[in-house]
Amino acid sequence: MASLSEIIRESQIWKSIFRHPMPVDRRNRVVVMLTNFFLHLHPVSIKKQGIALSFTWCMGGVTFFLFLVETITGVLLMFYYRPTLEWAFNDILALRDVTSMGILRELHRWGAHAMVITVWLHMYRVFLTGSYKPPREFNWVIGVVLLLLTLLLSFTGYLLPWDQLAIWAITVGSNMARATPFLGYEGPGNQLLNIDGIDMITNASDARFGLLGARFVGEETLNRFYVLHCVAIPLAAALLMAIHFWRIRKDGGISGPL
Amino acid sequence: MHSHVPYETFLHQIAGFLGSFYLVLAVMNAFAALVIWQSGRDKVLFRLPISKLPFTVSMAWLGVSIFFTILAPIAFSGRQDWMEIISLPQLLRSGVNRAMNPTIYSVGSMVLLLILFFLRKYVVQPPMAWGLLNLSALLMGMSLTDQNFAAIVTKPDNVPIVGLVFLLGFFTWLSAYQAVRNDDRLKQGLGPEEKLDDEKVLVWPDLVYTELICMVALTAFLIVWAIALQAPLEEPASSVKTPNPSKAPWYFLGLQEMLVYYDPWMAGVVLPSMVINGLMAIPYIDFNKKGNGYYTIDQRKFAYLTFQFGFLVLWVTLIVMGTFLRGPNWNFFGPYEIWDAHKVEALNNRDLSEFFWIDLPDLVGWGLSRPKAPEGSSEMMKVGYAIVRELPGILLVIGYLTILPPMLVVVSKFFRDMFIRMGFIRYMVLTNLLLMMMLLPLKMLARWTVNLKYVISMPEYMLNF
């Protein structure tokens, strides 16, 4: 008698979803990697040493997984949060005190901290194994940009709770932009950018203003950072991640001694 | 500043965590003892007197485990008189507070890392590394009963940094351990250990299941973390109430620490951009073909040391200092010191041009004075005077970036070989990135030794360097 699971796996619905039989024998374990969308990122077979935990530390994968965690918890948080001076702080307060599943924000925040750390550890491992060397030079460069995007994601997200911790950390961090050479209101060389004695670089037109959308961290900044945090940077990061993973395959797979 | 509860209340608050912390350590050591005992590679350290029974390595770790098991209930008690036994002595704590300053901290961590590097053959041996882990955990536990230390370490947003320090310690050990073993093998003409196993395995199930287990474990870890520690939420934002200290997010605190030595345009814009550019340039300036795809130190010593100096010393230790040791007004505080907003630090830093135009003439008896544009002179004249005034610094910086690289080729065989193999442009990029990186430690040294404020000081054009 066929068991229930066999009946399910033989059904037309199941077969239409999964393009391959269960990967229980060697042939189907190869086929599954080639025919499943989520798995085709991987090669069919891989150097045994290359996936040893003591070698890779799994940190790149962990970082990607944390990005997914951040995406899911982030979308759920967006249901409860309005990026306006009136509501931002109160929505976070309500999220803690009123909303059920009260660890959503914790998951998102601790996941973000963890992601910054795992990105660093991933870079550390890639450097220490010399895996950036040819032919993987360009993938290292993409990795550095992804590292920067991770920091920017965390930085823009830091403002959203709109408490004292948030606005002052962003104020301190973004004050640096005020001192950008040539383009900052208090940076060296900004006096050179003037037309007929009228300064082009003022506190309402300099690099910091571009970042904050205002002369100080205010409602415009909150909106700007919200859009950057929820839409612009994640999209850019997702695109670069796709290239990053694709290049791993194209550049000779997971690194190992030549 | 921390708002402190009475000491007894504080001890009761920390007791549960500290007790569990010691219990975890006890379990870890018992597990280590079990693993060694079962591996059949247990070594006899010495024989007990009289009975002549052997005392083995696994028994030593079991002893450590028993030690932590005894500490646990003492910590759980939360009683002041008992907790004192498992605290660092007050005398030691105030000694550390008095001795600590940015100089001791930075030079100390640098020296410590150098010692670890030179003794790496011994330090990476698992018993040694395990012992160091136990010691640092014990030090951490005995410090946590200090209210000032606990207040700063257990601040929710600082917890990840404690984790970072231990994770970095672990992974630095793990990589160095494999590198030392590989270097031994390479010396004997054998390939790296990573090459021993050339076998290929199917991704399903070998990798796919590893990934699944990783995901499940990480999810569990995040959920436990999220339940145990609430995300911080302070008072609603107010643009008129400036907290003291005002700190950037923790991963930027190394940059904020640089503000002590450089103006924002350098510390916040130029140097961070150089860090990003320098990281991107690494694959193109590292011409060493060895060490591709396996752990090694000997085969790429220069690359290894440069990276570790940049990452561990200049990035991580500065973040740790910025987070844990910088208090109100960005003053330095010892790890067990109370954050007193009224602490005053004397600032008597001087610019290079003051040394050159004021101190030096006094010393040798020249009749020089610091150039100053006369009243009512034109803009161009003022710029000219400022440039003459700051000429020593300007020449120094230009010379540093342009004369030093070729000079290194002349005086050092190491850099000469590098120049020959890299060609002019790549060599100049490499040396300029290195020199840019060294700007921070050099300025630190100049500040600590001769109180140098700026090499080039043109506040009228916001160009202080």
Architecture blueprint of SSEs:
The complex is a heterodimer of chains A (258) and B (465).
Chain A: H1 4-10, H2 12-17, H3 26-35, E1 45-47, H4 53-56, H5 59-80, H6 88-97, H7 104-128, H8 137-159, H9 164-175, E2 194-195, E3 198-199, H10 207-212, H11 219-250
Antiparallel strand pairs in A: 2-3
Chain B: H1 7-39, E1 44-47, E2 54-56, H2 57-77, H3 80-85, H4 90-99, H5 102-118, H6 120-123, H7 126-144, H8 147-153, H9 159-187, E3 200-202, H10 203-228, H11 253-258, H12 264-285, H13 301-325, H14 352-364, H15 379-389, H16 391-402, H17 404-411, H18 413-422, H19 424-450, E4 457-458, E5 463-464
Antiparallel strand pairs in B: 1-2, 4-5
Helix pairs in contact in B: 1-2, 1-7, 5-13, 12-19, 17-18, 18-19
Walk me through what this model shows:
The complex is a heterodimer of chains A (258) and B (465). Chain A contains eleven helices and three strands, in the order H-H-H-E-H-H-H-H-H-H-E-E-H-H. By secondary structure, chain A is an all-alpha fold. Chain A starts with a helix and ends in an 8-residue tail after the last helix. Among the domains of chain B are: 1-86; 352-464, no CATH class. The chains are: A mainly alpha (258), B mainly alpha (465). Chains A and B meet through helix 3, strand 1, helix 4, helix 5 and helix 6 of A and helix 9, strand 3, helix 10, helix 12 and helix 13 of B. Strand 1 of chain A pairs antiparallel with strand 3 of chain B.
